């Protein structure tokens, strides 16, 4: 058998894209609750109110001016508000996961469900109870919860009142949140990861900061996030020494376009900027020399406190979790034909096919990234996101024959097997993204689906939320049953 015994087969989701119930049970507003739906060609937006009271709508990655704040416009549809309503469907959904044979389920905890304003003194009991119910339901079926502490959201109040992660106090609020959930769930949850795709936190909605493109501000906020992650690791191990706490990065594989050394140097720089830096700090415990030089060159002075270095050193993670959807080609030549990708694209790769959203499909890339990570850090790995976003149609028999999804996943699993069997990589688990359909993070669409289970909901928020098993549901069940041996 290639996959080790006890391998964690499962699926992955995030609260802001799946849970809904955006104000239910005492939950407060999160930054994710103010992002509109977009499309493949139209960016998601946020509504902001400027200091002088003027209101306008801006691209979510545009800078929010200082003093401005995001708000919910009652006339606009926001996909996170209902999402695919795990909040009211968790029993039914977990039953479906159990039927597929899930060994684990990756989900995130909505910070503003536990601390509605982020800075509250006491947690919201109803919110805590919701996750108790979810974990109990999972454990009833022998499904191990794998919990992302923070997945692309922040209590909106922390952004408005404190400038989110720019403010060092946010670390304390986050620590309080971690303390609460670690203590409450210490006998129910063993696997945690701190920040989802920590290397993609860069705007108002993820960092909670205005003028996010100002590098001094952005780098200071990221420094605080990294400290918060280290603190969470230290705290978690204190509360339960059996906890396994990981980091989570978006692991895009970057290829140099040609053997021109210039392309390789540029690829190295892109690798460091978008990925390695975050891995190095969290897995090794210090800012790497290339990053210190970069900050120096950019004239960025991070405000630090005594003891910070020790925190980073002590707060190294137990394992490395990552998402992998596509590779990207890096070139020093401008004006080439481009490909899209998970937040970042590259130059078109003539050797690869692309998804309907233009993301290159590169199964061998997953073997490469597994090897790179394992060679470099020698820590157990977990693939916590992988999959194909595609349009599914229900045929005249009421079935969804998503062979394209099966094909994508199958090809990736074959390469994962090689990484384990031939290369000896230590892999703990595999949780394909959006196992039950949910809202796309990039575009806010519903029609970009990843799941084994279809949810009746459209891009405008209309639908019955009814669940329907796709062909891939039965396929994945066989994969898990055979521990990855049967892929047909
Ligand atoms: C990752 C995120 O970026 O990729 C998920 O962790 C996201 O939140 C996933 O949904 C797929 O991206 P998208 O844009 O297709 O939803």
List the helices and strands and how they pair.
Layout: E1 8-12, H1 15-18, E2 45-49, E3 55-59, E4 69-70, H2 86-100, E5 104-108, H3 111-114, H4 125-140, E6 144-150, H5 156-162, H6 169-184, E7 191-195, H7 204-207, H8 215-239, E8 244-250, E9 253-256, H9 261-284, H10 289-297, H11 308-314, E10 319-323, E11 327-330, E12 338-339, E13 346-347, E14 353-354, E15 360-361, H12 363-377, E16 381-385, H13 403-421, E17 427-430, E18 453-455, E19 467-469, H14 471-481
Helix pairs in contact: 2-4, 6-8, 8-11, 12-13
The structure holds 6-O-phosphono-beta-D-glucopyranose.
The site of 6-O-phosphono-beta-D-glucopyranose has 16 residues, from loops.
